[in-house]
Amino acid sequence: MSEPVSGTFRDPSLPLAERLADLLRRLTTEEKVGLLHQYQAPVERLGLAAFRTGTEALHGLAWLGPATVFPQAIGLASTWNPDLVRRVGEATAAELLAYHRKDPAGVGRNVWAPVVNPLRDPRWGRNEEGYSEDPYLTGVMGTAYALGLRGDDPARMRTAPTLKHFLGYNNETDRCTTSSNLPPRVLHEYELAAYRPALEAGAAVAVMPSYNLVNGRPAHVSPLIREALRAWAPDDIMVVSDAYAPGNLAGLQGYHPDLPTAYAHAIKAGVDSFTQDDDRPQATLGHIREALARGLLTETDIDQAARHILSVRLRLGEFDPVEPYADVTEAVVNCPEHQEMAREAATQSIVLLKNDGILPLARPADGPLKIAVIGQLGDTLMEDWYSGTLPYAVTALRGLSERCETVFCEGVDRVALRGDGGYVTARQEHDGGPLTLTPEGDGPAVWFDLFDWGGGAYALRAVANGRYLSAGEDGVLVNDQPGPNGWEVRQTFRLEPRPRGALALRHISTGKYAGYAEGALRLVDDADDAVVLVPELVVNGPETAARIAADADVAVVVAGDHPLVNGRETEDRADLDLPAAQEAVLRAVHAANPRTVLVISSGYPFAVTWAQEHVPAVLWSAHGGQEYGHALADVLFGDADPGGRLTQTWYRSACELPDLLDYDIIATDATYMYYRGVPLYPFGHGLSYTEFDYRDLDVSVGEEKITATVTVTNTGERPGVEVVQLYTRQRRSRVKQPLRRLRAFHRLRLEPGESRRITLTFAVGDLAFWDVTRGRFVVEDAPHVLMVGRSARDIRLSAPLHVPGERIPPRDPYAGPIRAVDHDEYDGITLVDASRESGDAVRAREAGGWIRFQSVDFGAGASSCVITAGSTEGAVVTLRLDDPLFGKVAGTVPVPPVADKYETAEATCSLDGVAGLRDLYVVFENEGVTLTTIEVRRA
């Protein structure tokens, strides 16, 4: 690299805009194009170094080696402590800066965190990455973490945080080709609301679009990037693509005919940086150059993208004469302060779901306490896909062993697998070797421990060397892995049943079967070529666990998920059940020792209905990082009050959930806001070792904010942590309103008998909802109830609330065309893209589908209607009044056939008897009809 060139852009005393303009003027078009990839090319003549986007830092620094591992993001949010989450972000940024100083080219300061997708459905494979099903809480936690990553210097950022994944991304099933249906209210009130706070606060300075489509249009070409994201941010933001997503535009999604066209549309929509083809930018940049040559892009388009990128780099201080944060050294990585913070975060994240009095644990009067620690997760800590490398691991067993006498049992079945050619046999060397079949079936060489991770996914550990079975790239099965790991997990199998109790091993990653050829077990394509194996039980896991538990004072069963198996990136869960083998261990242990505590460690909720009914105490936490065992012991022994609270609803069964791909939370009564059933554990739930009393709720309404004050008293005999939660409900409205919605919260610690007056405030504007009749947010003139309590279902005090607002008038059909997507109710339709660039439309998913426009004021009468619609087959649309099946037919509109799904035409019909205030139904007599607008004309 040549010596840096002096100039205005290198002068930190000048305004950012002036520096940015100077730098852009100095760059050639080719140099600007070179900036539009994850691996940005250096500009030697100006002394600009290479720059790389995308360092993973979701809950600590990841993928770079040992670094402090904090609880998963869902665990951090469960603390309900934004200040702590911000401090975790600060610690993560410091460790990133240390790694960056050591390897500036390999460790970039643009971090891909936090994830602010609302956790709409707990079956989502990436549930652990988000914060909450509530958009407000998600926004608070996302802003806190981003602020920590960014730093508090307004002029020089420590890192450049990136919000993921925009927009409507909550399923892994066919994630690159499925479309998330977001009606206007769900879009504005739920999805967008999670992204806005961090951008408006300037905490996040970048955004990553998601793999999916939204209303038929890929998120990477969404007009909302410009219309919403850039409009909210006080400064330029950089938009980075997700990995390989740009190629999908012309590939899996087939949205554009070729890559130059696709990339041109992405840049015009607002994507600035392409994460494509790993560290080989040549092909991507070539497609962008081709788009320029074809006239699909202009130099102005390139300038805009380059400006967004360089604005972030300038704010990182990259072009300043003195390197910012040069004093941060490797000594900060996993330093004692960060270790203590990891323990604090893990402790505060633990949620006590149930307690019949068995907790906190106390030593018996006649001797030391003996605890049986049981379960697949009892003596291990898990790293998820976005974890750092654990510098050390304090497991549940280790944490409890430091306090009392412990015995341990994983509780897994140990089996031998017998085939026609003998027993499956493993090598005893540490690095293992190919599995073979041998006639003899006795001893560790033929024994395997069977781990059930749910969803039919099992891992097998060879007793011979303690290593797990895996399929190598050559298809040979070997016992050489420490456990399920990597992006392509090759260590898990399904046990497919065969007649008379036999089974076949099916490799989950490849879908192939374990066969036998050339003296070794290897993967084969055909199920008929699979080795048929008869399992012989060597050790019964539940029975062994029960025997050990029976001799202990207390049994602690540690159950849960493996973050890389059955619920992870690329894989959703099918149900909410605890893995069957783990459930069997829990029941056997409880039968042997009623003093059983269930500890769940997972990145998502489980439907532990049996445990709630039978087990004396149940706790949950996300995978808690390196200090998990110490945190768990602190809570179990009462050194710390369990201060965590759930940020998601825990349902009793997946049957209570809508279809995974249905994103309309309002229509489907989804999330705690609309759910009408009785959850297993409600949003905000979490018990303490003490009791709290709520009194003297006062509410005041100002012009801009609403204030609630309440007195909270610790009425128990122990210090305790409480999270005071404030909810509202609008009691009368033109539209369906949430049953409850979180508006504010406050975490506090009280000594026994201590009282404190707590003040909670929120903006009057927070009560607004999206009015589809006028396309804007509205605070409606209506009665509300304000509710204060310990969870969304444990309300201790409430008060009436009236906030002056607007009265939403009936729809005026003559004010202009009514967008079809702005309907009030629907059935049998889906939302689609009106064009490749912008606009949404309604498409009939089935014949008889309809949309409803409520309370349309036709006045003295309407004479005709013009619809803008299209159908490749030709179709008929019927207009009915007040009922979609039996309502009076007001008009029938033939929809002319069109050649392209984006082509529409105007079709007119006369209206009969349409006057006064009526509900208008548009009924699609044929499937496949696309409707964009309706225009009504006066009589």
How does this structure look, described?
Helix 9 packs across helix 10. The protein is an alpha+beta fold. The mean pLDDT is 97. Among the domains are: 180 residues, 3-Layer(aba) Sandwich (Rossmann fold), CATH 3.40.50.1700; 111 residues, Trefoil (Acidic Fibroblast Growth Factor, subunit A), CATH 2.80.10.50; 114 residues, Immunoglobulins (Immunoglobulin-like, Sandwich); 121 residues, Jelly Rolls, CATH 2.60.120. It is built from 18 helices and 47 strands. 20% of the residues lie in helices and 28% in strands. The chain is globular. It starts with 15 loop residues before the first helix and ends with a strand. The longest helix is centred in the N-terminal third of the chain and has 21 residues. The strands form twelve sheets. A six-stranded mixed sheet has the order 1-2-3-4-6-9.
